[in-house]
């Protein structure tokens, strides 16, 4: 789960799974189609499982044979705490809130294999599901691997002025770079958009400074805060050092994203769309021809 295309594909897949489940006569296959597994208990995975739950439960009434059918949502996370980026009490709040809705959490567990109809875990358990989403880490662009030192496939190491170490004339920012955070020596700035945007401006200033024969300026940014949406109009997080949760957190979360959109026209369009969401049910139109193979799960294809 990395791009808007991934999000669109997943939405189409979920709606296609519901359509197929509605016609399915085999109970085991119907259950597979109605089971959704997400790997990764960071921000992306937590928001994703909450949103999947809301999407499915928001549209289930459109599928006559599924009204009483059981759905299953499972989040698998290798750490022992959900949302390790947040203070423990907020992570616990998120876990309690989502568990209260019926979402299952397998903490301290890794996904070891995934096939067309099942996902296998490090504790030996297996869940039969036709939809599996991965949010437990992405790799940088292959170009970055080619520029970086041999054997180091991670983001490029840069100094605090955003210059790549060991290679003259290469600068790196955003998800492609490991930028030292002087506030916590030995650690790096997190790969978030709020950092990347500021790093973009900083690197432009630094390149211009070096071209003009001046010294570049070290990059410094303390972060504004973090918010995670928990669906059902709830969110949790920390903004400017203050903890927020529940409906207030959600309103703030939406306000932040609205504020980040470029231009008044786009902001107005999205605000109107969100207002309409409050009064109308979700759109279930498929925007691509997603067909989910329902052949028997092939265990030999586990990677
Ligand atoms: C699911 C998810 C949710 C997230 N939520 C948040 C959030 O709520 N808040 C937050 O602050 N951060 C969030 N992040 C992190 C944030 O999206 C990234 O840290 C940020 O986008 C990094 O910016 P970037 O410019 O380094 O990379 P990107 O935004 O990935 O931009 C890289 C660009 O380079 C282009 N590109 C790739 N290859 C080439 C090439 N060969 N030539 C030319 N162009 C190329 C790509 O098309 C892309 O447009 C989230 C990330 C994910 C995956």
Task: Explain this structure.
28% of the residues are buried. Strand 1, helix 3 and strand 2 form a beta-alpha-beta unit. By secondary structure, the protein is α/β, with parallel strands linked by helices. The longest helix is centred in the first third of the chain and has 20 residues, at 4-23. The strands form four sheets. A four-stranded parallel sheet has the order 3-2-1-7. A three-stranded antiparallel sheet has the order 4-5-6, with no helix packed on it. It is globular, with a radius of gyration of 22 Å. Among the domains are: 4-138, FAD/NAD(P)-binding domain (3-Layer(bba) Sandwich), CATH 3.50.50; 142-211, FAD/NAD(P)-binding domain. It contains eight helices and twelve strands. Helix 1 (4-23) packs antiparallel against helix 2. The protein is 37% helix and 16% strand. It starts with a helix and ends in a 24-residue tail after the last helix. The model is unreliable at 298-303 (pLDDT under 50). Residues 1-2, 43-44, 141, 143, 174-176, 191-194, 196 line the site of flavin-adenine dinucleotide.
Question: Tags for this entry?
Answer:
single chain, 303 residues, alpha/beta, FAD/NAD(P)-binding domain, globular, binds flavin-adenine dinucleotide
Task: Write a brief caption for the model.
This protein has 303 residues and is α/β, with parallel strands linked by helices. The protein has eight helices and twelve strands. The strands form four sheets. The protein has a four-stranded parallel beta sheet.
């Amino acid at each position: 789960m990395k791009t808007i295309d991934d999000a669109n594909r997943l939405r189409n897949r979920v709606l296609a799974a519901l359509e197929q489940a509605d016609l399915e006569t085999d109970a085991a296959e119907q259950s597979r189609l109605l089971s959704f597994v997400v790997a990764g208990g960071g921000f992306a995975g937590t928001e994703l499982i909450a949103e999947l739950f809301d999407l499915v439960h928001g549209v289930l009434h459109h599928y006559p044979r599924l009204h009483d059918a059981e759905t299953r949502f499972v989040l698998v996370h290798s750490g022992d705490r959900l949302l390790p980026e947040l203070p423990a009490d907020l992570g616990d709040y998120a876990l309690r809130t989502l568990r209260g809705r019926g979402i299952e959490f397998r903490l301290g567990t890794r996904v070891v294999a995934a096939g067309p109809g099942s996902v296998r875990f490090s504790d030996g358990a297996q869940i039969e599901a036709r939809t599996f989403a991965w949010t437990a880490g992405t790799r940088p662009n292959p170009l970055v691997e080619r520029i970086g030192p041999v054997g180091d496939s991670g983001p490029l190491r840069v100094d605090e002025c955003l210059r790549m170490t060991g290679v003259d004339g290469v600068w790196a920012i955003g998800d492609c770079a490991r930028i030292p955070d002087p506030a916590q020596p030995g650690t790096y700035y997190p790969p978030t958009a709020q950092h990347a945007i500021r790093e973009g401006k900083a690197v432009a200033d630094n390149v211009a400074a070096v071209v003009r024969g001046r010294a570049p300026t070290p990059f410094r940014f303390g972060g504004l805060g973090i918010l995670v949406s928990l669906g059902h109009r709830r969110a949790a997080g920390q903004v400017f050092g203050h903890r927020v949760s529940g409906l207030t957190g959600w309103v703030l979360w939406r306000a932040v994203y609205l504020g980040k959109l470029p231009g008044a026209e786009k902001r107005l369009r999205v605000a109107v769309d969100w207002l309409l969401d409050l009064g109308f049910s979700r759109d279930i139109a498929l925007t691509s021809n997603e067909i989910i193979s329902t052949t028997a799960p092939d265990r030999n294809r586990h990677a």
